[in-house]
Amino acid sequence: MTLEDLLEKTPEERVDIFADLIGAERIICFNNEIARRIEAMQLPPSSPSNEQYSSHSSVHAPELPENEGYIYT
């Protein structure tokens, strides 16, 4: 089974196939993560949920002080 085959399966099919191998809770978590990532890919670029991962976020690194006798090694 390829990764593409796995992703094309329904969540129920993945549970049926893999629950005995890795546990139902893990495959359900995996299904939830796949659903979350698919949803994130479908969000418009200006979506608030998408901005937290953007490199253009409004959070800026603090400015460093001028060299006031600090010795940088």
Keyword list:
disordered C terminus, 0% strand, single chain, mainly alpha, 73 residues
Structure description:
The structure is a single chain. This protein is mostly helical and 73 residues long. The chain has a domain at 3-50. It has 4 helices and no strands. Helix 2 (11-22) runs antiparallel to helix 3. The chain is elongated and about 40 Å long.
User: What is the terminal-to-terminal distance?
Assistant: 53 Å
Kindly estimate the percentage of residues that lie in beta strands according to DSSP: under 5%
Mean pLDDT figure = 76
List segments where confidence is low: pLDDT < 50 over at least 5 consecutive residues. Answer: 54-62, 67-73
- The coarse overall form would be elongated
Structural class assignment: mainly alpha
| Overall number of strands | 0
How are the SSEs ordered, and which strands pair?
Blueprint: H1 3-8, H2 11-22, H3 24-42, H4 48-51
Helix pairs in contact: 2-3
Structure described in brief:
The protein has 73 residues and is mainly α. It has helices spanning 3-8, 11-22, 24-42, 48-51.
